[in-house]
Write a structure and sequence with these properties.
Blueprint (H helix, E strand, L loop, with lengths): L9 E3 L10 E2 L12 E3 L6 E2 L12 E3 L6 E2 L12 E3 L6 E2 L12 E3 L6 E2 L12 E3 L6 E4 L2 E4 L10 H4 L5 E3 L2
Parallel strand pairs: 1-3, 2-4, 4-6, 5-7, 6-8, 8-10, 9-11, 11-14
Antiparallel strand pairs: 12-13
């Protein structure tokens, strides 16, 4: 069961009966239209497939240090998502995790990230800065996210396809 009405604007996620929340279930917040802010618990380790699918009002997500995995399409269609913060401990960002987040403009992928799925930032047309933070596993070359062995793991970044500069930096 979904915990929210379709018009909630903010939510604090907490365990019931003293239990820790370690993952957000697939499609759990699917299409919650007014959700702008989410406060995730420090116990959270995983955001499942499509957990925030089409939460069109969502503007910002700050991951607690405990989150290690974002599954396939977790934030697909979050068209107002502008800010993604604290990806420092995320080891896996699965395919299409942020697909269609058209207002997302700055992403920092930490050196801890071991896997970036294909199309992770597809149709993120406002993405102007992608920081890889000295990631030993990935690089940006010819506007593509590549594994260090040269295999393409991400689509050609949208801003580059439009001929606008996209910076990649090591922080």
């Amino acid at each position: 069961d979904k915990l929210l009405e379709k018009e909630a604007d903010s939510v604090f996620i907490a365990g019931m009966g003293g239990r820790l929340v370690i993952k957000i279930l697939s499609d759990h917040f699917d299409k919650v239209r007014g959700l702008k802010e989410i406060i995730l618990p420090e116990s959270l380790k995983k955001i499942n497939t499509g957990a925030f699918f089409n939460c069109t009002a969502l503007e910002k997500i700050t991951f607690p240090d405990s989150v290690e995995e974002i599954e396939i399409g977790a934030f697909i269609g979050c068209i107002n998502l502008k800010t993604v913060e604290n990806m420092d401990n995320i080891k896996k960002i699965s395919e299409a995790a942020f697909y269609g987040c058209i207002k997302l403009n700055n992403v920092k992928i930490s050196s801890n990230t071991q896997y970036i799925g294909g199309g992770v930032f597809q149709d993120c047309i406002s993405l102007t800065t992608l920081q890889l933070d000295n990631n030993p596993n990935y690089k940006i070359e010819n506007q593509l996210i590549l594994s260090k062995d040269g295999k393409v793991c991400g689509i050609k970044l949208q801003k580059m396809m439009l001929g606008e500069p996209l910076s990649s930096s090591s922080v």
